[in-house]
C-alpha cells in the first residue's frame, strides 16, 4: 500500500512539479517512473530531481556517485536508459572502469571523463568480465607465473613442509604479508590480513611478534 502511494506521489512529481516528499525526516531515494537515468531524492522533506552522470544509472543500490551505479551493474526493468557515450579517449563514458589490455595489473578508472590508473592488488590482473581484478590463471591471455613471479613445482615431496597443505601447497615470498598458494599448478599470491604475517617455518599467518624477521613489518 505504501509503495503504491509513493509511486503515485512520484508520478505527480513527474507531471505536476509537486514539491513534496512522502516522508519528512531522513534520506529517501525513489526511482523515476520511466527513466533509469533519473531519480528523486528527499532529504528531510526537501525534494530534488536528480540525474545520474554519464555512464551511471539508478537502482537504489549504487554508491559510485550521487547514489548512482555503473550502468552494467543496474537492472532497469521497464525503465528506459540513455547510454549515449559522452566521454573521450579511453573514457567511453564520463564514469566507468576500463581495461588497459588483455592482461594488465592495472585498469583505468574514469571520473568526470578524467582517466586515472588504478593498480590491482599484487598478484591479480584486471578481468573485464567482472569489471575488477581477478586471479591471472582465470584469464585466458594471462601467464600467472609472470604476474606472480613464481613457478609452482610439478611435484611436492611428502617431506616438504608445503605438502601439509596439499592439494594446494603454499610457499613464502619476500613480502612478509603475503604468500603463494598453488592451485592446479598455478601460483596465486595471497595476503595474510588481520594484521598478521607469514611464517616461512610453519607456512601459516601469525602475529608479527612470533615471526622475528617480520616483527617490524607493520611499523614501516
UniProtKB/TrEMBL annotation:
<feature type="signal peptide">
    <location>
        <begin position="1"/>
        <end position="16"/>
    </location>
</feature>
<keyword id="KW-0325">Glycoprotein</keyword>
<dbReference type="GO" id="GO:0005576">
    <property type="term" value="C:extracellular region"/>
</dbReference>
<feature type="domain" description="Chitin-binding type-2">
    <location>
        <begin position="18"/>
        <end position="78"/>
    </location>
</feature>
<feature type="domain" description="Chitin-binding type-2">
    <location>
        <begin position="88"/>
        <end position="144"/>
    </location>
</feature>
<dbReference type="GO" id="GO:0008061">
    <property type="term" value="F:chitin binding"/>
</dbReference>
<dbReference type="InterPro" id="IPR051940">
    <property type="entry name" value="Chitin_bind-dev_reg"/>
</dbReference>
<dbReference type="Pfam" id="PF01607">
    <property type="entry name" value="CBM_14"/>
</dbReference>
<dbReference type="InterPro" id="IPR002557">
    <property type="entry name" value="Chitin-bd_dom"/>
</dbReference>
<protein>
    <recommendedName>
        <fullName>Chitin-binding type-2 domain-containing protein</fullName>
    </recommendedName>
</protein>
<keyword id="KW-0147">Chitin-binding</keyword>
<keyword id="KW-0732">Signal</keyword>
<keyword id="KW-1015">Disulfide bond</keyword>
<dbReference type="InterPro" id="IPR036508">
    <property type="entry name" value="Chitin-bd_dom_sf"/>
</dbReference>
<keyword id="KW-0677">Repeat</keyword>
<feature type="domain" description="Chitin-binding type-2">
    <location>
        <begin position="149"/>
        <end position="216"/>
    </location>
</feature>
